[in-house]
Amino acid sequence: MKLKTLAFAAALVAASAAQAQGAKLKVGLMLPATGTYAALGTAIENGFRLYVGEQGGKLGGREIEFVKVDDESDPAKATDNVNKLIKRDNVDVLVGTVHSGVAMAMAKVAKDTGTLLLVPNAGADAVTGPMCAPNIFRSSFSNWQPGYAMGEVVAKKGHKNVVTITWKYAAGDESVRGFKEAFEKAGGKVVKELSLPFPNVEFQALLTEIAASKPDAVYTFFAGGGAVKFVKDYAAAGLKKSIPLYGAGFLTDGTLEAQGADADGLLTTLHYADSLGNARDNAFRLAYAKAFKLQPDVYAVQGYDAAQMLGIGLAAVKGDVSKKAEIAAAIEKAKIDSPRGAFSVSKSHNPVQDIYLRQVSGKENKLVSVASKSLADPGRGCKL
């Protein structure tokens, strides 16, 4: 009798697992739909949906159902938003976000609940540092990576004294830290670190301070609407002609249309560039333009690759999202065939990737060279 009961229970478990695998996989998209970063959120979602569409709407054999939340780039609302997706909407996977402060809250909840989290933008170093976990992966970058690569570039150009300027929040602080680490290691000196609260865009007083300091160059981290205004204000203040401006690539990615001629010639570092020319990127750009009547940017690539990583993990477990260790193992050993060029993930689950030096020409961030080959974030504080 006991054997029959056990067999029946086992059959029920197997049936329920099979049923779960046949059910739709709920993906919670927690991205900004309003505010400074709205366009970035749209590009990430477009990229993610494009890859899922290319797989016939299924990953690991399971049809994808999207549940969306506008995170408003507001860290104060982040924990409530992510808990709604997990507890109310019962999502199987979390995808988000852009703002580093919001991503930190997402990472904490994902770590506490064991929910699979794919970060398609926010570069907060801690996500793949002290907050790292077997169920957390990033398809984008750490804030340290583009900053560090640009520190090397600026030093090689012979600049000795640099002023940095950014928003006072995790992304800005960490980008500047990466730049400073490489630049000062090569003998340069950051003479002044300027900042203003996110998402403030009143730059005039700080631009006056830059002009008075007369540095050899300026390094900056801004993105979205703030990046548009900073580049325009920098040029309007007459600084573009006298003090070279360098930035993490978000300064000119997805913003060139609005920046116009004021961005022309700017040098930035990022893990993607327009006109990379590889076959994977050519196919991606064509498919994206056909689907959305827009040219893709780095954010679209990161969304696309987040979906690729999820697909690799789910394929390994035939869609059974409960098999977290097997999903992690599959992504850890994969070479992701990205439009940016193939990349792998580090032990702390951050991309190990080429960082490109790009120059603005018209409405493109054109490839100049590889600034740093297969650059891995140090993953400081990660104990996986």
Explain the overall architecture.
The protein is α/β, with parallel strands linked by helices and about 375 residues long. It folds into 2 domains: about 200 residues, Rossmann fold (3-Layer(aba) Sandwich), CATH 3.40.50; about 130 residues, Response regulator (Rossmann fold, 3-Layer(aba) Sandwich), CATH 3.40.50.2300. It is about 45% helix and about 20% strand. Strands 7, 8, 9, 10, 11, 12, 13 and 14 form an 8-stranded mixed sheet that branches. A 6-stranded mixed sheet has the order 2-3-1-4-5-6, with helices on both faces. About 5% of the residues have low confidence.
Notable traits:
about 375 residues, alpha/beta, Rossmann fold, eight-stranded mixed beta sheet, six-stranded mixed beta sheet, 13 helices, globular
